[in-house]
Structures are given as structure tokens and as C-alpha cells.
Write the C-alpha cells for this entry.
Amino acid sequence: MRIPLVAGNWKMYKTLSETKEFMNHFVKLLKGSEKAEVLICPPYTSLYVVNELRQNTKIKLGAQDVHWEEEGAYTGKVSCNMLIASGCEYVIIGHSEQRTYFHETDETVNKKIKKSLEKGLIPIVCVGETLPQREANQHHEVVKKQIIEGFKDILDIKNTVIAYEPVWAIGTGRNATPQQAQEMQHYIRQILAELYGKSKAEEIRILYGGSLKPENAKEIFSEPDIDGGLVGGASLKPDSFYQIVLAAQ
Ligand code: 13P
């Protein structure tokens, strides 16, 4: 049984005071009986305060990226140990914004996944095609390559989450249809079955991300291979994020 996961990726939003305001409101909405696991991935500067304010709730904490080295002279980077010491259980890896703007490649994704798994952090590995790639009917090929190269030489994927985020749906207001998302996410599960066996593939949670909103989440989450969502814009407001959490049943 895959427990749905609803993860908020705050991207580069929220100062400390905005974070506190969100958390004070959001924890009041949670009843504790929600079926989905709830995860917040704030910017690094807000990890500490989200960790403090989530105490006595079931909210999990994650980061938006990590470096693959243990420690060292890597200005601007943060290690797995630092994230774990800040209360993180999850880390987003290979987000399309990292791939597009910050030179993330399948090779660096692979190094980050390996280090995270070694340290016990759960990677949320993002894959997805651009609009020209979908229009050229290359979306399956693109996603397959991202998975095969991202998971190269990784023998066990038990503690891994995959997020299918079509780039054309991110921040555009144009979500994939439930059918498009289901079709791709079923395909991703088939690739995982080829690599790791059917039973392992059945255990892995595959999230959808891209313009998820309270209005479309329930229909998207009702598809059999969609195990929750990675939410950008709509995770910045406690009420809309909570509505999406409730949609995952
Ligand atoms: P939006 O929900 O704002 O489209 O962002 C999706 C995303 O990139 C989550 O990682």
C-alpha cells in the first residue's frame, strides 16, 4: 500500500516571518486524520523555523537540493548531514528549474541520489519533458533517459520517490490532464519494474507536479499510478495547500 505524499515545494519564496505566519496558520488546519503524508520543502533559510513549528504535528521536512560531497570547500552548497541535522527526511533532486538554470545534469542527479540514499535521506527525483519534446513525441524517451541515467548503478530504490513534472505544466496554470499524467506515470512504473522488478516498482510513490490546485487535485490524484503531488504555487497559501492535502485520499 502506497501512502500518498503531498509535498510543498516553496522554491525561492518566504522570509522567516512569512514562514512563521504560514506555519502558525497551517498547523491549525491539520486534524491529524489526513490520509496523505504532508511534507514542506522550504528554502534552506526557513528549515530551522519550519522544524521548530512542526513539532507535535505529522508534517515532514525536506530541502530543495543537496550537494553530493560529504563536506568541503563548496561555497553556497549544503550537505546531506546538514539537512539531516536540520530535521530533513526528504530532499528534492533534479527539479527542472535546477536542470534549466543551474546546470543540473543526469550525472549530478545520480551523484545526489546516491549520497542521499547512503545517508538515509529520501530523494524526490524529478523528471519531465519540455513542451517541444512533448510536441515532437519524445516525452517517453526523455523521461526514460532521465530515469536510467539518474539511477545508474543504484541497486536499491526502496526509499525513493519520483515526481513527474512536465516542464510545460510548471507555473503555467496548464496542468497535464489526469490521463496524460497517468499514462506517463504508468510508463515510469514500467521502467522501474524493468530495472528493479515489479514488486519494488509497485512500492515506489510517483507524484505528479505542475499547476496542481485545489480545483484539479482530486481528479489527478484519483489515477492509479499517481500517489500524491509536488505542489509549487498552491503550497504557499495554507488554505490551498491544505485543500490539496485533503484531495489525496
Ligand atoms: P507549480 O505548482 O507552481 O506549477 O510548480 C510545480 C513545481 O515545480 C513543484 O516542484
In short: The first helix runs from residue 16 to 29. The mean pLDDT is 97. Strands lie at 5-9, 37-41, 60-63, 90-93, 122-127, 161-164, 205-209, 228-231.
